[in-house]
Design brief:
By secondary structure, the protein is of the alpha/beta class. It has helices spanning about 15, 35-45, 45-50, 90-95, 100-115, 150-165, 200-205, 205-215, 250-260, 275-280, 285-295, 310, and strands spanning about 55-60, 70, 125, 175-180, 195, 220-225, 225-230, 245, 265-270. The protein starts with 12 loop residues before the first helix and ends with a helix.
């Protein structure tokens, strides 16, 4: 709900609320808590209007002058994906410095440039990567600080703290931990079932996500393409040795992240990972099962096409 109050597409909430037809709406009342204002918006929406908000390219709501919003922005090592900006070395390089203060400064610099490029408003950035670099054949190991869970945990917490800022009420920008979880293989990454034990998860693959949430106060998580033999889903065991697709894993997204670690942000799928629940993992047999399995497990938002407005009504 807090993330819903972020400024959107270069227009901040204050500017929207100057319009006479919405000026008296409760979500425009700056004296109310953020959550009350967000709830007021949701209560006001029709089912048709809500149906366009489950995709990362969220639809506008012209009736209340609310603009559309693109949740997908990258900040892995700077915001140069959006054009001219400082592009600092890949994360595997800065991880080798073992310098927590540097990681915080890089996060702070990145969010400063991000706000500058967006006309002074904050956005949702899908960074950092806190997966464990276990094998150089992965092909994307440069996106991670390395193979050590302790180092990766420290990097994630410090980078997120710098990126989001330390204001008690406002996010400078929003950070999103990825890819959740047991994800560090490029070959068949969209359809593999990772065979892991509880010890593998608790010792190796989960600590950096826990640190990013509890120490860094991350406001986003991205569930990954793969499935893992850990946790449970609403449709029972998966077809790949019981592995549960990450975006349907209720244990990791809800029981662990939200209920145990205290996560209070949004969970988004990797791009087209929800499609893969159906066509690669064969965990669901139809559209209705996919929607129930993902949203019922704790996922909020999709980067892809399954949660399109036409499928949500």
């Amino acid at each position: 709900l807090g993330a819903a109050m972020l400024p959107v597409r270069g227009q901040d909430v204050a500017a929207i609320c100057k319009e006479v037809d919405v000026a008296q709406a409760p979500w425009c009342n700056a004296s109310l808590p953020f959550r009350d204002r967000a709830r007021a918006i949701v209560r006001n929406l029709t089912d048709e209007e809500k149906s366009g908000l489950f995709n990362s390219g969220a639809a506008p709501i012209p009736r209340i002058r609310w603009p559309g919003y693109n949740w997908w922005m990258e900040a892995l090592h700077g915001v140069a994906r959006q054009g001219l900006a400082t592009s600092w070395p890949q994360v595997i390089g800065v991880g080798a410095t073992f310098d927590g203060e540097l990681w915080w400064q890089l996060g702070n610099m990145t969010s400063t440039e991000g706000r500058g490029k967006a006309g002074g408003v904050g956005h949702t950035y899908w960074a950092p990567v806190v997966n464990i670099f276990r094998d150089p054949r992965w092909g994307r190991g440069q996106e991670s600080p390395g193979e050590d869970p302790v180092l990766t945990s420290k990097f994630g917490a410090m980078f997120i703290s710098g990126l989001q800022g330390d204001h008690p009420n406002y996010l400078k920008v929003s950070a999103c931990l990825k890819h959740f979880s047991a994800y560090s293989q490029e070959t068949d990454r969209e359809g593999m079932g990772a065979v892991v034990t509880a010890q593998d998860m608790n010792d190796t693959y989960l600590p950096a996500f826990m640190a990013g949430i509890q120490q860094g106060r991350a406001s986003g998580i991205m569930c990954s393409y793969n499935a893992e033999t850990y946790g449970y889903g609403l449709l029972g065991n998966g077809t790949q040795g019981g592995a549960i697709p990450s975006c349907t894993n209720r244990y990791t997204m809800t029981d662990l992240a939200r209920d145990s670690w205290g996560f209070r942000g949004y969970i988004v799928s990797d791009c087209y990972a929800v499609n893969r629940v159906w066509d690669r993992h064969h965990y669901a047999n139809n559209l209705t099962e996919v929607l129930n399995a993902t949203l019922g497990a704790g996922m909020d938002l999709e980067c892809g096409s399954i949660l399109a407005a036409s499928n949500m009504l």
